[in-house]
């Protein structure tokens, strides 16, 4: 790239940034610039209601602008923009504290896989519905007997000529009791070797035979469910990719899930208190330093790790723009979620007994949130592939160590 | 600040790797050690390195420099870390050259920098006085006398102190013992009257020395920078040194790790390659994840030297602390995963272990930089 061309691009991006800033200033209602609570998150779907008129207005403006999914193709309702523009929108939204207008597993996980593997009809039907917030999606991967060993899954779909007949169950289906659709990995060839007999199927949760039960977690929340399929008829059109080739769709989607999870700490609906801020509130200082040497040491270890992780996110972005491949994206889920757990443990240690409140009077809301987030953080290194599975993947794909 | 190398930088990386592998492999360090080489490095190799522009890589063209930027230097340091190459690159061409560049007057820069850049003159920084890095805790005094000063005190862990032509001495011309105010820098000849140098044989087989200044008289022209204002020069110089060392440690960690991963693919026990054992796979994969984080930190810290000096203190401490931790982890695991042969002198892995321990102490151990990072963050 020669120098003048690069300068033009930089100038164009700076112009774009100022346009974005101006548009957001003019269009983001003041109420949508306040920290969001879990209850105020809008997930869309057939049965969804906007938490407020402003939330509706904000969502509709973002949708019409094409900025719900800035990088997705314009023909399906996306913004048709490049990664640098999308990053600028994200940065400017953050600078303004603008809320995420639509929270969606469809955006974070299914959409990118559908754009890569789906046929034209599927893209027309589902991508637009995701962006418009008309369909809320759940993920059907794990089963009670298939966790880390995902490819051992047993939920089966039999070919009945004009449809598949699905029987089995899926677990850890996020908010499935509120979802319209579920994307599932199902066994379509019981005789084939593990990964080779699996297909990727889209199932309408209103179909007869689909039922869902919430599961209570150690955090006290019941975000996750178990979903049962009892002789569910699924149209053949709902197969994504080729029959028995669902594993490659699943793997592509997992990459998006792991990327999302590695960044989740920075985009949590609950207010994430940086441990160094909590330290100023809860710990005694001596001569400008946290007096407890052990906690100070843990605090700085955490801050340095997060600094390094943040820089590595930037690096992976720059590598993407430059077309350079590195192993960095493959380690981010592991380091990001482990750091998330470290953060929660550190916050509890810093807050002492004030960090142990479960509910009710006697504790502030941020204190109660911290404890609940601590309990939830334990799931971070399990969901989307455990830390141990991440290390297996690094050992195999990056280090190319022999497999037993 | 760029976190991806450009084409020129990648070319430098390739050529540096090739040159060092051919001309200065780890076996060269072993030879210097076993022959008890009095200089501690190969002067012909240093001339070749200077000929490639490495001694002048960070210096402006006006002083005979290549002006290739600090990221370029980091690339060379990293590659020299892979081969554990002993040379005056760090002490002279990075640390001392930066001090002259940042603190020297025009006459000093014109006189000294082109000589350093050409590899004809070597300098060493005489800073430490205790067995831990405490850059402001200086008891060596510089008292005015006549037209100049008298310097008295003892220095230790002076990298290249016995081989450098000149010593850059940090002395106290005023202020309390631990104060940052009142420090001054002086450039003196190593062989001048009043200077005595004792070479210390360190575990890494590289050069360091104890230096005593016994009422050494120097002319006023020996002063580098303003009298009593030495900290303003010393701190950024140390930060540049820390980042350069971190790059070297990145190289030695990568090399030790890659050799270990290769061994895991070859060595068989219980009828299988030991690299197929999950207990070892997970430890190796954890190291890989830390290598990736450290790679980003190094690139950011290197570019901050030229592009964002205000962020340098935080990034230099981040880089040195992170790489100290990484180098310790990797070299320990490299020895352990090699098993019995890992503790033999025959295998080169031990050289990486030993160099890492010295590099970890130079210009601040992990605790020093964690404390500095926390202090800069306000806690």
UniProtKB/TrEMBL annotation, chain A:
<keyword id="KW-0285">Flavoprotein</keyword>
<keyword id="KW-0274">FAD</keyword>
<dbReference type="InterPro" id="IPR006091">
    <property type="entry name" value="Acyl-CoA_Oxase/DH_mid-dom"/>
</dbReference>
<dbReference type="InterPro" id="IPR037069">
    <property type="entry name" value="AcylCoA_DH/ox_N_sf"/>
</dbReference>
<feature type="domain" description="Acyl-CoA dehydrogenase/oxidase C-terminal">
    <location>
        <begin position="244"/>
        <end position="399"/>
    </location>
</feature>
<protein>
    <submittedName>
        <fullName>Acyl-CoA dehydrogenase</fullName>
    </submittedName>
</protein>
<keyword id="KW-0560">Oxidoreductase</keyword>
<dbReference type="InterPro" id="IPR036250">
    <property type="entry name" value="AcylCo_DH-like_C"/>
</dbReference>
<comment type="similarity">
    <text>Belongs to the acyl-CoA dehydrogenase family.</text>
</comment>
<dbReference type="Pfam" id="PF00441">
    <property type="entry name" value="Acyl-CoA_dh_1"/>
</dbReference>
<dbReference type="InterPro" id="IPR046373">
    <property type="entry name" value="Acyl-CoA_Oxase/DH_mid-dom_sf"/>
</dbReference>
<dbReference type="InterPro" id="IPR013786">
    <property type="entry name" value="AcylCoA_DH/ox_N"/>
</dbReference>
<dbReference type="Pfam" id="PF02770">
    <property type="entry name" value="Acyl-CoA_dh_M"/>
</dbReference>
<dbReference type="InterPro" id="IPR052161">
    <property type="entry name" value="Mycobact_Acyl-CoA_DH"/>
</dbReference>
<dbReference type="InterPro" id="IPR009075">
    <property type="entry name" value="AcylCo_DH/oxidase_C"/>
</dbReference>
<dbReference type="GO" id="GO:0050660">
    <property type="term" value="F:flavin adenine dinucleotide binding"/>
</dbReference>
<dbReference type="InterPro" id="IPR009100">
    <property type="entry name" value="AcylCoA_DH/oxidase_NM_dom_sf"/>
</dbReference>
<dbReference type="GO" id="GO:0016627">
    <property type="term" value="F:oxidoreductase activity, acting on the CH-CH group of donors"/>
</dbReference>
<feature type="domain" description="Acyl-CoA dehydrogenase/oxidase N-terminal">
    <location>
        <begin position="12"/>
        <end position="134"/>
    </location>
</feature>
<dbReference type="GO" id="GO:0005886">
    <property type="term" value="C:plasma membrane"/>
</dbReference>
<feature type="domain" description="Acyl-CoA oxidase/dehydrogenase middle">
    <location>
        <begin position="138"/>
        <end position="232"/>
    </location>
</feature>
<dbReference type="Pfam" id="PF02771">
    <property type="entry name" value="Acyl-CoA_dh_N"/>
</dbReference>
From TrEMBL, chain B:
<dbReference type="Pfam" id="PF02771">
    <property type="entry name" value="Acyl-CoA_dh_N"/>
</dbReference>
<dbReference type="InterPro" id="IPR046373">
    <property type="entry name" value="Acyl-CoA_Oxase/DH_mid-dom_sf"/>
</dbReference>
<comment type="similarity">
    <text>Belongs to the acyl-CoA dehydrogenase family.</text>
</comment>
<keyword id="KW-0274">FAD</keyword>
<dbReference type="InterPro" id="IPR009075">
    <property type="entry name" value="AcylCo_DH/oxidase_C"/>
</dbReference>
<feature type="domain" description="Acyl-CoA dehydrogenase/oxidase C-terminal">
    <location>
        <begin position="228"/>
        <end position="370"/>
    </location>
</feature>
<keyword id="KW-0560">Oxidoreductase</keyword>
<dbReference type="Pfam" id="PF02770">
    <property type="entry name" value="Acyl-CoA_dh_M"/>
</dbReference>
<dbReference type="Pfam" id="PF00441">
    <property type="entry name" value="Acyl-CoA_dh_1"/>
</dbReference>
<dbReference type="InterPro" id="IPR006091">
    <property type="entry name" value="Acyl-CoA_Oxase/DH_mid-dom"/>
</dbReference>
<dbReference type="GO" id="GO:0050660">
    <property type="term" value="F:flavin adenine dinucleotide binding"/>
</dbReference>
<keyword id="KW-0285">Flavoprotein</keyword>
<dbReference type="InterPro" id="IPR009100">
    <property type="entry name" value="AcylCoA_DH/oxidase_NM_dom_sf"/>
</dbReference>
<dbReference type="InterPro" id="IPR013786">
    <property type="entry name" value="AcylCoA_DH/ox_N"/>
</dbReference>
<dbReference type="InterPro" id="IPR036250">
    <property type="entry name" value="AcylCo_DH-like_C"/>
</dbReference>
<dbReference type="InterPro" id="IPR037069">
    <property type="entry name" value="AcylCoA_DH/ox_N_sf"/>
</dbReference>
<feature type="domain" description="Acyl-CoA oxidase/dehydrogenase middle">
    <location>
        <begin position="135"/>
        <end position="215"/>
    </location>
</feature>
<feature type="domain" description="Acyl-CoA dehydrogenase/oxidase N-terminal">
    <location>
        <begin position="6"/>
        <end position="119"/>
    </location>
</feature>
<protein>
    <submittedName>
        <fullName>Acyl-CoA dehydrogenase</fullName>
    </submittedName>
</protein>
<dbReference type="GO" id="GO:0003995">
    <property type="term" value="F:acyl-CoA dehydrogenase activity"/>
</dbReference>
